[in-house]
Every structure is written in C-alpha cells, then in structure tokens.
Give the backbone structure.
Amino acid sequence: MTRSTLRFLQIGTGIVISVACIAYIVVRVDLSAVLNAASHLDWRYLLLGLLALCIDYSLRTVRWTLMLATAGERVLLRSSAPAFLGSMALNNVLPFRAGDFIRALVFPAAIGVTRTTATASLVLERLIDLLILLLLLALGLSLSSGIQVPTWQRDAIFLVSVAGAGVLLCLLLLGRRVGTVFEAVSNYMRTRGSLRWAGIADRLATFSHRLMDMARPRVLAVTLALTMVIWIAEAGVYLSLFHGMDIASTPFIALTTMALATLATLLPSSPGYVGPFHLAAFSAVVAAGGTPTQAAAFALLVHLSLWIPVTLAGTLCIAFNPMFFRRNITMDHDHE
C-alpha cells in the first residue's frame, strides 16, 4: 500500500467517523430548535468562558516555555507563545494534528530551539495531558451524582489512570538508562562505519536525555500542577456555558464533560475534531439530565467557543511571524 493510499484511507476514515457522529445527533433533534436554544445563550457567561480560555492557553504557553528552558534551551515567552498558539490553530484546521508536527519540526528553528528538544517536550506534554485528563475524568465521575455510568466503566478509567501514572514513573526511572544505551549503540555503529545509524542513535540518545531533563522531580511536579490548573480552567468554559444556557450542572459535571469531549478528539475525525467531540459532549449533557436539544446546542456552542478564539489567535500569530516557515533559518545546535 502506497503512502498516498494510506493517507487517503486515514482521511476517509476520519470523515466517515465525523459524519456518523453528527448524523447520530441530527436524527435525534430538531435543528431549528437547536439553533433557537443556542440563540438564547446568556452572553455574559460566554465572556466568563472566554476569560477561562485565556487563562487556559496562557498557562499552556508558560508550561511549554518552562519545559524547553528546563531542557537547556534559551527561549523567551514572547517567542514561544506565538509558536505554540500557531500550532494550536493549525491543529484546528489541518488533519492528523499536523500542528503538533509543525511545532516539533518547523517552528523550532525560528524560536531558537532544537527539533529534538521540541519533540521531547511535545511527547511529555501529551503524556501528562492524557494522564491528568484521565484522573480528572475519574474524579468527576466519582463526585458527580448527575452522571450515572456503570461501575465497570469507572473502574476501567481508574485502572487506565493508574497505568498512565506507571508509565510516567517508568519514564523517570529508566529514561537516563535508555539514553545511555543509545549512546553505546551510536559508538558501536561508528566503529562499524555505519554513520547513518550512529546519527539516528545519537538523536535518540539526545531525545531521551532532554526528556529526562524535563521530567526531573521538581520540574515535573510544577508541570503536573500547571496541567491540572490548565484543564480545570478549560472546564470553566464548559461550566460557563452550562449556566449561560440554564442547564442544571455542577463543577464536577462540567469537569466530566470536558474530559470526555477532549479525550474523544483522540479518535480519527475531520479537521477541527468535528463529530467525536460533539457526540461526547452531547452524550455527557444528556446523561447529566439535559434534553437532546439542549445537549446538541451545548455541543455546538462549546466547540465554537474553544475553536474560534484559538484559531483566530493562532492565525494572527502566524501572520505576524512569517519567519516561522522560512527554510533558510539554520540551527547550528540541532546536531547534537
């Protein structure tokens, strides 16, 4: 199977899943009633939601800058923030989370960071995000009486959360050793004259060491705390819209809805996470006692509240920083 065929199948699968999720919602609601419910949103609560979103993404940029600085990079918030927001905007409009790859492989040159370090930061960031989301989901389901789920599902979420914590612990314990192994492999390959494989081993060794620099206990504790606040702030967007639409809710229901909707974006879908995100938010609101019309309107509004501001801000960051995509920027220290 050729690469182009595989890519076509991946895009096709994402579109099919998106259409199926939206169709599941559409056949259960009256679209005119959904639009009417959305139009009755109290816009004062939307402003509170936007404030929560600003806190959310401000802390995300601080977290990324901290991770890069911990790995030895000299990077300032004023240069890392536009790159971060730009990558988020690209994630919102391109398939396969292409913005993540661009943040790891394209933007680093413009902000004075090595690709290896940027990639390591992205891997650790995603691992921590997943762990915290699972923990918050388990917490929300445990403390929310409004959303009823089978006991086995609660137990499964708890076990996956524990497994995620175990992976992070293994990373702390074994990361340096893995880097040392790759260094030994590199030295061996050089003695055999395999310079290409030696170079690959060198990069993997550097990746492991940078990852461990970012995962030092004190730094990791700060990163975990920031991540917890980040996702609680994003849940604030959901809670604001719950109140703005006069849907009965609690902070724990908002937390659970946010975690479910965000985790659903891991599924293949069309650009912008259309479909899985909406179905997860729709299902959570219905499970919490909302009507299908309220749930569909909520899913639409919360998606727009998250998508539009981030996409606009990121697009402006890219527009005012054209050097992000210039290929003639060299990185002398990227060949470690």
Notes: The chain has one domain: 29-328. Residues 328-336 have pLDDT under 50 and may be disordered. The radius of gyration is 22 Å. Residues 29-328 form one domain.
